[in-house]
Automatic annotation (TrEMBL):
GO molecular function: GTP binding; GTPase activity; kinase activity
Domain of life, source organism: Bacteria
Protein name stated in the entry: LAO/AO transport system kinase
Residue numbers spanned by region Disordered: 1-39
Broad class of enzyme this protein falls into: transferase
NCBIfam families: lao, PRK09435.1
Amino acid sequence: MDREKGSRRVMEGVKASHDGMKSAPRKKFKKPQAQGSKTAELAEGVLGGSRIHLGKAITLLESSNPQDKQTGQDLLNRLLPHTGNSIRIGITGVPGAGKSTFIETFGEMLTGLGHKVAVLAIDPSSSVTGGSILGDKTRMENLARNPKAFIRPSPTAGTLGGVHKKTRETMLLCEAAGYDVILVETVGVGQSETLVRGMVDMFLLLVLTGAGDELQGMKKGILELADAIIVHKADSDNMKLAEKTVREYKQILHFLQRATEGWKTQALPASSLEQTGIREIWDMVKQFEDTVKVSGYFTVRRQNQTKDWFRSMITDELLSRFYSDRERSGKVKTLEQQVLNEELTVSQAIADLFE
């Protein structure tokens, strides 16, 4: 009897549980949000100045996923009418010149004046692992916490070829988000300087005291890219030597081709440590902007940069499509081996490949 009663209780409990499950309301699953509304929401967030939405938008543009790429371009098209309203400044420097310290001090001064500042750092990526340092927020802790600033590293993935696309599109997104000063930091003196010069309005070169010693290791071409030379770390006992270095650079600049039509390249001392000369640099930037806008060269330069961007993207797309074809890629390897075995000349191999 006890066993029968126990069995009935178990059965009643199971039934009650089953009935309870049937009576429980079903969860309503939301339908996936339409892609167009997602893009619209992201665009609205960027235009509203949300740093979270801006970060998501940049990540979308950097994605290699075909669907993300298309969504990213749709987003960019929506935001394009709200771009172009900034001064774009490239910043480079010799090793040890203190670029990050200068950018943080300069950026904090600008935000204090009511400007919104975006810092885009061309970050060196490992050619072996593809990893990048991405340490800009660590190097600029105070600026990273500033609500009027946005810092974003742009990893090069082992090649500088992608810089013109990623950084240019990121600049446009930052402008749409209301950032009126864009600072583009390069990895050092080298090929990246030429690429950055081709996407900014003004180019600053940071150097240290002792122009003669530095010029031995600096290419003339780098100096000819600069609209201003900043003799950094001009503080305390180093001030007199810094002023002497400024005079030396001013003499040198007389013999060099100007980087911007109608603008005489300037040389100024500055100290991020003592925060001297920083405001004077910004006054010079504004003077530069006024000068090139009045002459019309500001618009001409930007149009030429867009044209160069368009053409470089054609090259990138051709290379991408060329190597994505398996048959053609296999033929490249075969011909390459024949060239190495001296069975064909390089010219013959190229002729065979393109037939």
